[in-house]
Amino acid sequence: MLSVQQITGGYAGAPVVKNISFEVEKGELFGILGPNGSGKTTILKMLSGILPYKSGDILIKGKNLSQYTPKELAKIIAVLPQHSSQAFSYTVKETVSLGRYAHQKGWFQSWSSEDEATVNRVMEQTGISQFQDFDIQQLSGGERQRVFLAQALAQEPEILLLDEPTNHLDLSYQKELLDLLSVWSKDCGLTVISIFHDLNLAGLYCDRLLLLENGEVNINHVPNEVLKEGRIREVYRTKIEKLPHPRVPAPQMVLVPERSQAESQSEKRVDPASLEVKENLLVLRSPFPLKTMSSGVTGSGTGWNRIFLNRHVSKNYDCSDHRAEMAEFVRNIGFEPGETVGMMTAVYVEDYSSKFCEEETFSVYVVVTAGVGNAVDASKSEVHSHHLTPGTINTWVFVNGNLTEEAFIQCIMTATEAKTRALHDQQVKDSVTGTIATGTSTDSILIAATQQGENLEYAGTITPLGKVIGKGVYECTVMAIQNSQRRIKK
Ligand SMILES: Nc1ncnc2c1ncn2[C@@H]1O[C@H](COP(=O)(O)OP(=O)(O)OP(=O)(O)O)[C@@H](O)[C@H]1O
């Protein structure tokens, strides 16, 4: 549909864009990215024919751009510029109608029923029909942006060029506009070429991205290849991190703010002084949010949490809506479920066992409650019926250190292996299979790290961190099992 071949040019003086080549297929949603001043708008102006280039070629549907008359070009390409403005006082409908000029025939440019239908349709699609008789000067920036988009669509172009179309739009209109562009490109074959400052929106919606750096192509590829942490940090000269989107396979980049000197120097940590043992409840309050990976009833998955609860519930606790009940419980005792990892157990939490272990550059605090009435041998669990009862071994591991994602996962593995060994040594049996149990049916685990201080890349069993976790979880699990068994005997 569009082929840009080694174009170089700009304004007076040194060229702004240098030797740029790329192709855009019919129906593609193609994003142009790059820092301020990298030449994005300059390229868009060249594509729309308003800025000549010094060398190279731009082919549209196989024909050189210079061979099109302005009116022919307007039937193929519509442009939504960055700062749309209008000197005259027109109504919204009049402004949108101006988009039809390329389709009008003869000297008298008569307005056809097709023109009328198209204008009404695009006003509907962009959600501006209700403003059609308003003076455009009366509208907000976002509403005006939608009017100019409607004007571009009224041209019924094959190629739509957009310069930061989501500028001025609130969150829901940003999504709505990009959803529309996506539908128009996929279902109607509209080719969309758009400049984006928001890398995440570009990554979510575009088929391919062109990243510019100082007027040159850094990369032209699919979003996952373009939005690489190292590349974006280098081109934009800023600290960012890449995360997976929670719902769709698109990369998301997040800015990492610089920490103030006071923050990075403060020596805050989690240790035994952070734990409160209340009746039927263990509460650990961290002085600041910790990065967590857990299978708690509240706060499960990954997140940042400040409050950690291990709550005793009776053996007959009704598990039918345990998440809602637990969230209510958390609220009732004055905490916010959104910043709390909450677990339940049928054992008495006063029988917990804990261990604080301080190494040279990091420290680990392990807290375990363990009852084994519900013990299961995972290798034979298929013979068990599915029956949810409150978890009986809850393992908390707090790390005063900075963990990678990999280390978080390895912490879970190491802690689980240590727990299993503790059950083995305590000869805890699965009552259904009669074999040694590996855990209980609803155990929970929490790994929480301060993300300050020493970088801890790994936590496998023979790494410095893994060794501390393995020993700590093993000893605490043994002790907690013995504590709860002692109580049962009494
Ligand atoms: N009309 C102009 N005359 C002279 N130089 C210009 C003109 N317009 C832009 N430039 C220069 O060309 C370079 C690229 O500008 P361009 O607008 O293409 O960048 P951009 O990538 O779109 O930036 P932004 O993200 O800030 O919109 C800049 O250094 C700018 O100063």
How is the secondary structure organized here?
Elements: E1 2-9, E2 17-24, E3 29-33, H1 40-47, E4 55-60, E5 63-64, H2 70-76, E6 77-80, H3 92-97, H4 113-125, H5 141-154, E7 159-163, H6 171-188, E8 191-195, H7 199-205, E9 208-213, E10 216-221, H8 223-226, H9 229-236, E11 240-244, E12 251-255, H10 261-265, E13 275-278, E14 281-294, E15 301-312, H11 322-332, E16 340-345, E17 353-358, E18 363-370, E19 375-376, E20 393-400, E21 402-403, H12 405-425, E22 439-440, E23 444-449, E24 455-456, H13 464-489
Parallel strand pairs: 3-8, 3-9, 6-7, 7-8, 15-16, 20-23, 21-24
Antiparallel strand pairs: 1-2, 1-4, 4-5, 9-10, 11-12, 13-14, 14-15, 14-23, 17-18, 18-20, 19-22
Helix pairs in contact: 4-5, 12-13
The structure holds adenosine-5'-triphosphate.
Adenosine-5'-triphosphate is lined by residues 10-11, 16, 34, 36-42.
Q: Report mean pLDDT, rounded to a whole number.
A: 90
Provide the number of structural domains: 2
Helix content: 25-40%
The set of bound ligands, ions and cofactors reads:
adenosine-5'-triphosphate
**CATH class designation of the largest domain:** Alpha Beta
End-to-end Cα distance, whole Å, is 82 Å
Largest sheet: 8 strands, mixed
- Per CATH, the architecture of the largest domain is 3-Layer(aba) Sandwich
Tally of DSSP β-strands? 24
Briefly note the structural class of the backbone: alpha/beta
Low-confidence stretches: none
Q: What is the radius of gyration computed over CA atoms, rounded to a whole number of angstroms?
A: 31 Å
CATH topology of the largest domain: Rossmann fold
GO molecular function: ATP binding; ATP hydrolysis activity
Pfam family, one: ABC_tran
Keywords: ATP-binding, Nucleotide-binding, Translocase, Transport
Domain ABC transporter: 2-239
